[in-house]
Amino acid sequence: MAHADAATCADFVRGLLQPIAHAELERHLAVCHSCTETVDWLRAVQAVTNVDAQYEPPAHVLRRARAVFALERPRIICKLPRLAARLMFDSLTQPAMAGVRGPSGVSRQAVFEAGDYAVDITVDQAPGSSRTMLVGQVMSRVAPVAPITAAPVLLTAGETIVARTVCDRYGEFLLEYDPQPQLQLQVVVDAGRRRLELSLDQTGAVSRRSADERRKPVRRSGKKH
After folding, report:
1. Are residues 75 and 30 in the same domain?
2. What H or E segment, with its residue span, contains residue 200?
3. Which of 56, 124, 164, 195 is 20 to 30 A from 40 in CA distance terms?
């Protein structure tokens, strides 16, 4: 008998050969060192796969793996049913307290709500830096103690993906990007069935000018009526 091919050896190891073919290959293995090595290697692989089949990865690992995979398909994310978010709080609309009216950098906080969800974001731009850092947290308004874990997060400008990440086990995420108009934050929720859409333009562009304008005193006209 000539050397057995890999497929035949694999069927032999898995017990799929017909009795006659099985017996014939057994006799061949008694005298063929090369085929015996192939069968031994296949048996080792089978042992590993048998053990692996009994292992169930933790649920949080599976969720994160699916989220990372989803980030590689941003067009699919952007086509999910949209749940538009409303701006509920914007720190730039609040008067700054005395003593903190002259920060060296720019920082902004905003809270959005959409359906059963809330998204809290902080946008910072360090002094002398052109890059913006956005830190956020996605929360459930109906079950606040249950964090939104492993949710894909996209920052888009039109059809351009500006930045992407995944929420951690606390529902928190971090994005760093170059400021630009028409930025929207997309957060996948409901086990991948819907997405929250936050228009960051609702809060205005985070810039030094916007922060400086808040600190300018109101000039009153000197004219008398």
Report:
1. no
2. none
3. 56
